[in-house]
Amino acid sequence: MTKSLRVGVVGAGAMGADHIDRINNRTSGAFVSAIVEPDAGRTAKAAENAPGAQTFAKIEDAIAADAVDAVLIAVPGQFHEPVLIPALEAGLPILCEKPLTPDSESSLRIVELEQKLDKPHIQVGFMRRFDPEYNELRKLVAAKDAGELLMLHAVHRNPTVGENYHQSMLITDSVVHEFDVIPWLAESRVVNVEVRYPKTSSLSHSGLKEPIIVLMELENGVLVDVEMNVNVQFGYQVTTEAVFEQGLARIGQPAGIQRWSAGQFSVKDHEDFTTRFATAYDRQIQSWVNAVHDGTLVAGPNAWDGYLVALSCEAGVKALEEGGIIPVEAEPRPDFYA
Amino acid sequence: MTKSLRVGVVGAGAMGADHIDRINNRTSGAFVSAIVEPDAGRTAKAAENAPGAQTFAKIEDAIAADAVDAVLIAVPGQFHEPVLIPALEAGLPILCEKPLTPDSESSLRIVELEQKLDKPHIQVGFMRRFDPEYNELRKLVAAKDAGELLMLHAVHRNPTVGENYHQSMLITDSVVHEFDVIPWLAESRVVNVEVRYPKTSSLSHSGLKEPIIVLMELENGVLVDVEMNVNVQFGYQVTTEAVFEQGLARIGQPAGIQRWSAGQFSVKDHEDFTTRFATAYDRQIQSWVNAVHDGTLVAGPNAWDGYLVALSCEAGVKALEEGGIIPVEAEPRPDFYA
Amino acid sequence: MTKSLRVGVVGAGAMGADHIDRINNRTSGAFVSAIVEPDAGRTAKAAENAPGAQTFAKIEDAIAADAVDAVLIAVPGQFHEPVLIPALEAGLPILCEKPLTPDSESSLRIVELEQKLDKPHIQVGFMRRFDPEYNELRKLVAAKDAGELLMLHAVHRNPTVGENYHQSMLITDSVVHEFDVIPWLAESRVVNVEVRYPKTSSLSHSGLKEPIIVLMELENGVLVDVEMNVNVQFGYQVTTEAVFEQGLARIGQPAGIQRWSAGQFSVKDHEDFTTRFATAYDRQIQSWVNAVHDGTLVAGPNAWDGYLVALSCEAGVKALEEGGIIPVEAEPRPDFYA
Amino acid sequence: MTKSLRVGVVGAGAMGADHIDRINNRTSGAFVSAIVEPDAGRTAKAAENAPGAQTFAKIEDAIAADAVDAVLIAVPGQFHEPVLIPALEAGLPILCEKPLTPDSESSLRIVELEQKLDKPHIQVGFMRRFDPEYNELRKLVAAKDAGELLMLHAVHRNPTVGENYHQSMLITDSVVHEFDVIPWLAESRVVNVEVRYPKTSSLSHSGLKEPIIVLMELENGVLVDVEMNVNVQFGYQVTTEAVFEQGLARIGQPAGIQRWSAGQFSVKDHEDFTTRFATAYDRQIQSWVNAVHDGTLVAGPNAWDGYLVALSCEAGVKALEEGGIIPVEAEPRPDFYA
């Protein structure tokens, strides 16, 4: 039996607690050996669900104590860089929740630092790439058995968002997932972004002007429209319809138990991302643990992907604010990330 | 332009009124020339919707007045025979609502009388044969492209029934439709009938013991189960699933506008037979009118089919009351109905 | 019984022949009294299916012979004006296949001529307004029970088009339907149009650059995206998804018989507009005949609607050719069309 | 961190190999410490996927070597008893693949032996109880929010079976799953069984007379019909439709990616039980491992449930061979299994 991987989880908020549960109770070959969190209350609560885990206020302390073989970062994006740097310098494999960092400049600093190592050590937590349906759709795209992919119609609808959710988060917190998963699906990077405004929902809290339609053009000519809609009240939906030359494919449709009552046939939709992407989250972590065990270290989007997403987000925010078609221009991809 | 067919509608209750509307407002080549109804109030109301129609208390009077080219019978089943006899004797084409007559003995009298004419003149109003989906399913059965038909799972669910609906009507008023349409679908007659009792619905009025499961075996070996369920509250459903050697086909599923709200994807079901079978009723009458114009006279189930259904109903009622597998034995089919 | 309406059908090509069959065999209260068509071969063939109809080479001759009570125009759009003018001058009710005329200038001439009559006499054949699902969706929009309508995602996919189908016909022959039905659905006129290009299908014949995405903004703020795609090979699809503040509704989904075979559950899609809109065509004609009988004359889109559609088409073609967001500016609506 | 459970897997055929993969690669808190298999070739192959596992020819040897904390039995049913006895005598927790034993007499011997322990130690591998949809349906039944459950329509269709699959296996190998899961769903035991024969599929190998319809009546009056069909060619389907007084619920419908091509909308069905019940198998093992860790030992169907299923199978085989309604009579349930 392989030695079980000692994972240090950085951040013991909702996302961190969820990952602790996943690693300890549904993942083979790993366990939570350390919780890194400055807030003592959160730490205590998280520690209850991670028997035997040591607790630290800083990642540097966990590294110094040789308490971890790998690091999972689940603090908010603006705090990623100060955790990434010491973890990279210690040569540890890292699963970093999305985004890599909040802007392309800091992301570029990280990819430069990472290139001092022998190979990529950072996997970014864009978990949609582990969703079974996205994977099936990607295979269809590659197989070309219905011809070339021409366009994608994507939808991302949330029941509601909090008062602290502001306009640019439509791009940086929500469309950000599409900026990662769509280039991966279509195997081509984003070259420009446009935003159009439909009628604004009266259910959005004051100051928020949404839904929006985001149009992205890929280098291979594929055009993508994304409906981004964060106060739909009626459910959580993340769907994509791929239009090929000779066929269509659609993922993310409601499934599960079917009911008839009161004159209606119905199927329950998802309430939030935890159920919609439950399998994706589990597979993401298991794949990453397996990749660390076999020395590959990264089994999903890497830091370069994270940098490209940061660029698309910057173009998206500009399109949101200024209108028009905003180009996305990236540095050439280093061989290190080939 | 062909002369328009003068139709006498016998019975001006709900069903008669519906046929009057259909003939005058949605049927090409025919109009209602006479309403035959002893109740003066009903007659007056119906006449409002049939401008120019004469009214009669008895079919004999309408015939004597030479007021009709064809007869549509929409009175309750126990009153069919006294209308059928004079209409047959006058040599008129007849569309007779189901059932032909309430029992096999009287049905046999009618088929004997009809055989004195040159060809069949009676069409029985089993309108399911005109439903587009039943027709498509029948073609699939005949085509055998998924192999032989092995069994059928049928369902007939009503939201509710009135207090006057009694136990044997489960067979004679409801399963009666399956006794006609299934032999037509599968091209083989019913040879025996069994009834099994699930748990009884507490929503059925006192004295009614339902739902029931009716099992019919056809001469060609196909086994049919029918869920007959008359107090489901939640909608009107008439569905059939055909199991072939190498495939399935299912008709009668909810269709139409799809909605998402309150976390659910839903499609509205039918509320009653008027919407579920609207097209079937319209096509039934148009086909019959066309058949009268071209001299065929009958474009659907004939009186012999009506007699076979009466036999199946008698076996069904016996199975309901006594249990066990009850055989259905018919006279040989006369060449007249070949 | 009301006297049957004598309809003169102008044009005996495929569309005219279809209308002749509909009027004579599936419509109550009307028959084809005249066929107006200069081509003797077409006339002869059409006359076979319209027993008793007179034939004329020109509409003026049919009017002079007092052979028609109403006119149905089924010649190509560029020939509409010379038929509309004498028919209007004769004060006849007219059902004119879409478009009213090929450009806004000629459409404006027609609406000016029509205003010399006591009320609108022209109905334009945008038959989608008679489709049951579009009607149901329109009621949902008006009811606001899921809140305000925010946007519409529409799709129009054809299996293929002929070699004579050229680039601007994407707008004038295909999106033209959306330009009529969407303002009617959303009760607000089109104010601007943009066209974006996805990857071009290699199945399109040379010179055709499609699919396209058409974005229309309505006066009430609703944003509409239309995928217009004319070589999809796999079926005929016309669908609309309405996004409300608190719910969704979707029309035009595949329905009908469900099949399982070879490891797949499937439902057949439509092959072309004749089956998808069969009910809409029938209801359009029956409604128009009824409107002529009751003196309303018009039961659907009128000539003013036809003029507005011509304006949207002109903006759409410009957007197709030049890019950018093209405004649609209309004359004020005369009270005559209120 | 809890000590990892050392599981001895008995039987290294297809099912055993699948469990070894599951325990070592997708299960938290357990690993395969021993493979018990007399066939050296199978043992060698299985050992490759279970690094560090010891191998034994007999369960007694593994127990004597203190190599296992718990036992998973994956040999054919007729070999269960000789493994169950020594494992029970050693006081080990056991996950025994279905059936417990091949007949009710031997099952009764096992439940008697098990009662010498302090609590139940055997869980029987009816994995459907761990399928998310079955669980959701069971909650609906218990909640009674659509009224009482009246009947169930179940379907079990296999693409094909091998030549060694003989007539009684329709009951003992296939319907056996329904005999466990349906009483659990409906919370009531089977009281009688009837079998009816539809037309026999010509695709069944000689000697096999199927499909069959199995009717089971539960103690609470619920009637269950099961279509058992093992040569359908077109896919693997295990579905259940529950009919309540005021509603329906249906599980096991095709889901996943939707495609349109060649004029059809389609969804892929399952090919076999490994994909249909992948989640159920994973959850079954994880739940059992967790139950062993927390001292509950059993987290699913126990040996008494296994005995009841054996009784139903005996009645089912009799019904298959002799016809009529065959009663199922069980011993009273000991408090030990309450």
From TrEMBL, chains A, B, C, D:
| GO terms for MF | inositol 2-dehydrogenase (NAD+) activity; nucleotide binding
Report any Pfam family annotated for this entry: GFO_IDH_MocA_C3
Please list the GO biological process terms of this entry: inositol catabolic process
Ranges for domain GFO/IDH/MocA-like oxidoreductase come to: 134-248
Give UniProt keywords alphabetically: NAD, Oxidoreductase
- Kindly state which reaction or reactions the protein catalyses: myo-inositol + NAD(+) = scyllo-inosose + NADH + H(+)
Which Enzyme Commission number(s) are listed? Answer: 1.1.1.18
Where the record annotates domain Gfo/Idh/MocA-like oxidoreductase N-terminal, the positions are 5-125
InterPro entries (UniProt xref): Gfo-Idh-MocA_inositol_DH (IPR050424), Gfo/Idh/MocA-like_OxRdtase_N (IPR000683), GFO_IDH_MocA-like_dom (IPR055170), MI/DCI_dehydrogenase (IPR023794), NAD(P)-bd_dom_sf (IPR036291)
Function description: Involved in the oxidation of myo-inositol (MI) to 2-keto-myo-inositol (2KMI or 2-inosose).
Give the record's subunit note: Homotetramer.
The family line of this record is: Belongs to the Gfo/Idh/MocA family.
Q: What is this protein called?
A: Inositol 2-dehydrogenase
Question: From what organism does this protein derive?
Answer: Corynebacterium ammoniagenes (Brevibacterium ammoniagenes)
Gene name, per UniProt, is iolG
